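mind reviewing both lines:
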Amino acid sequence: DKPVVYPYIVDNIGEALNAKRRGRALIISHQTPAFAPSGTYGELEELHQLLHKEAQTEGKLKETIRKDIARKAFKAKLAQDIGYKTQRDILKDFETFSNKLHEHIHHVASQNVPLGLHTFGETKERELIHLTILQILGREWVSRWEKEEYQEFLAQPLEKVKASRAFRAIVDCLEGRSQIKECERIKELYHRFDASQELKSFFDALEGRYILTSYGGDPIKNPDSLPTGKNLYGFDPTRVPTRQAWQSAVEITDQWLKEYYAKHKSYPSKVAFSLWSTETMRHFGVAEAQILYLLGVRPKWDAGGRVVGLEIIPKRELGRPRIDVVVSATGLYRDHFPNLLSMINHAVRIVSLLEEENNTVRENTQKIKEMLIRKGYSHEEAQKLASIRSFSNESGAYGSGLDEAVFQTSDRKKLSELFLFRMGFVYDEGASSVKVEGLFEENLKDTQAVVLSRSSNLYGMLTTDDPFQYLGGLALSVEVLGGRKPEVLISNLRNSQKIMNAEDFLITEVRSRYLNPEYVRALMKEGYSGVNELLNTLNNLYGWQVVSPQIVKSYIWKEFEEVYIKDKYRLGTSRWLMENSSAYGQIKDLLSKVSPKAQSKGGYGFGKSNTSALESLNSTYQGNLKGFVLEKVVSKEVKGTPSMEKSVQFLMLLAILYSLGLMHGLRKRVWV
């Protein structure tokens, strides 16, 4: 038998385990990119300094600085990030604006930003490891060395962070100039970043040798996932949710419900969750605990930490109405955690039997039961199916289909129908992978919020297509079925531990990463792989633009244009893109599909600023492409000839050949 040896990123245990299940693969874990604090840059840094200056100034100078801040914040779109539409609105209540802007800058600056990509078997540069160690040590370490608060420490350019006492103390430990007790821990962390074992394990596996096992995870939150080069394994699913996950979920959910009630003067009646195996393996069941807590049910654990049952939380103790839920699980989640899908259904079942006032779970279950009886189901069948809230792909199938469909059509009804068809199979004990016509749709009607957890420092909203195809598809389907857009939410389990609007989460990700010159510099060092990362980012942004345009700020595309096409930071981004024209051609292909529709009817949620950005990208591409062998192929595709599809396929073939030409032999580049 031939061995199957599969290198996999250490922070994606769920997908790694599926490679074991489907292909009997032996996993060789590899590292994530290095991390650094986003810090401040450009307008963020200037405005942060001005906010501090304004707070320390009086009289006419204070008014002048306020007007300057309002003008610059509006020009930089930072005011729009936090909901302001005019400079006049800012100056009406500057104190409130100042607090919001300061908080926004701190939030962006505190994000962990991946720098570049990881190359399989190659240890990172020393400085990148030092920065990652600083992020692992976090607040407690920084507070020991710096007088300013942790948020203020992070809200400075990265160069100043590297000159700080906290950072230099790490370097001093590693270079033998310090003997403080923490030095042993720092040295041990540094050695964990040795990536040489990745290649050694790879070749050992090919020779049939034993590979050490390890649990994976986010290296910032779980440095024990390092060193890599290990055979990844999962954990006992009967321990989900853990006691710690339950406690976190209760706190996070209570805070969100408090905010929701303050905004709407009522509690939500139904919330839908997108559940992913990879996420559950990172947060150990916080999302599942949130679902149970909304229903007003809590787990019972045995002495070993295994969940052995559920118990009703009395309504008096709960202090609010019980809230109905719907679960849309990925195919991987269905494979890894069938017990949790059944547990959620059981929770709904016992809550629906409670004869309480304002029990929406019971009311919705009864409505669904009546609908099923009208369709010809017996009372017994209808009763059982009516309490099911867990849905996923058909057994053996994966994906919602939207990852490809959004590039073929913008018809929201058709996209919703595809999502509902592919993700609408029932999962419960004794009823797995069953399609019950109308059941998924009836459950999703009147949903007021859709939620996805994000717990990895690496994976965000634009890192892969999964967030838009699952969470976005869920939101789109709720809207099409009921005519109202649900709130699209992220349960942020990275460091802030709160449920927040996806719109705010997305703009924070864009500013902390993709518009950050430190991120851009690191990406450019990766050559053609870096351009491919940019292409993936734009593809995923486009996906969100199609399925949930309400969460994409109207000026985001323009900001990408300024940084990457117009080379805002004078880093040479235009030449970098031009020299890697295979992926650049695909970027242009994507944008050429969008621009005409945006011009004619503002399709895909694009406004004037987005259309302008796309036009600029088009013209820049046409200008830069001259002299490249792809020019004639691209020009034919752009003109929309009948052979457009074949031209695109040929372009992709040329892109592959071009990339191979850049590799100079076997490149061991790993895309993450």
